[in-house]
Amino acid sequence: QVQLVESGGGLVQAGDSLRLSCAASGRTISGYAFGWFRQAPGKEREFVAAISSIGISTNYADSVKGRFTISRDNAKNTLYLQMNSLKPEDTAVYYCAARPSKILLRQTFSLRNEYTDWGQGTQVTVSS
């Protein structure tokens, strides 16, 4: 099991950028695949982005493709989400999630139930 703590959220204006971080502890993250999800008020938690355990493969929701970039730094045990050209509809609580993936090294995962560990979330609010 890995413990996850998100940071970097805040209040920004439309068009601004933010970088979210997800610090992992308890285990080295090298054998884990990661994802970012978000949940807006009154809506289901939805997939945003994912990265494979060796970082070669990434996957994005259509709504963020071309604006968001997921990355990982195994030496720092940290996952990132660079968010550019933010829109009011990006407003949500953002969660990072992890799952062991020592065999499926190039696989990304986009379903909530594919992940075993979750952080507490960080709020991102984008004003128009």
Name the average pLDDT. 95
Tally the helices. Answer: 0
SS-derived structural category: mainly beta
What level of helicity do the residues show? under 10%
Instruction: Summarize the main sheet.
Output: 7 strands, mixed
- SSE order, as H and E? EEEEEEEEEEE
Number of strands: 11
Low-confidence stretches: none
**Percent of residues in β-strands:** over 45%
The coarse silhouette is globular
Rg is 14 Å
In short:
Helix content is 0%, strand content 49%. The chain is built from no helices and 11 strands.
Name a few traits of the molecule.
128 residues; mainly beta; 7-stranded mixed β-sheet; 4-stranded antiparallel β-sheet; 11 strands
Per-chain topology:
Layout: E1 3-7, E2 10-13, E3 18-25, E4 32-39, E5 46-51, E6 58-60, E7 68-73, E8 78-83, E9 92-100, E10 117-118, E11 122-127
Parallel strand pairs: 2-11
Antiparallel strand pairs: 1-3, 3-8, 4-5, 4-9, 5-6, 7-8, 9-10, 9-11
